[in-house]
């Protein structure tokens, strides 16, 4: 697994936390049962799992926290799909902006955070096997 610095993990944690907050705000705009509502529900769950994993890495605990211990392999597998989707969508959106542009940099930060999340989810999955 990749070794991330505390700075990289802290930045990833900020991005994931912002994403959770933004998704929760957007979710209120959609009726429960709609595709958009379900997509956001799944994305929020994936981001919460990502947040727990990043916090665990930052605290440098090799044992699982109680909350993280309750995350199943199936939930980890399900969490990968929204994380990979965010990476893909951000990369596609990034193509519309010049490198160095504020939007480009914002998307770059989110992509980095999601790549860290993806690696931590995959690592936790193999750890549970």
UniProtKB/TrEMBL annotation:
Protein name per the record: Uncharacterized protein
Recorded superkingdom: Bacteria
């Amino acid at each position: 697994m990749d070794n991330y610095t505390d700075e990289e993990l802290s930045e990833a944690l900020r991005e994931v936390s912002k994403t959770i907050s933004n998704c929760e705000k957007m979710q209120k705009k959609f009726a429960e049962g709609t595709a958009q509502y379900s997509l956001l529900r799944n994305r929020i769950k994936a981001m919460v799992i990502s947040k727990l994993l990043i916090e665990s890495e930052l605290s440098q605990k090799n044992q699982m926290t109680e909350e993280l211990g309750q995350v199943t392999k199936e939930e980890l597998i399900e969490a990968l799909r929204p994380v990979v989707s965010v990476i893909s969508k951000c990369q596609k959106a990034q193509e519309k902006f010049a490198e160095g542009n504020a939007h480009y940099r914002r998307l770059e930060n989110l992509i980095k955070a999601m790549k860290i999340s993806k690696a931590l989810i995959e690592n936790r999955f193999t750890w549970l096997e």
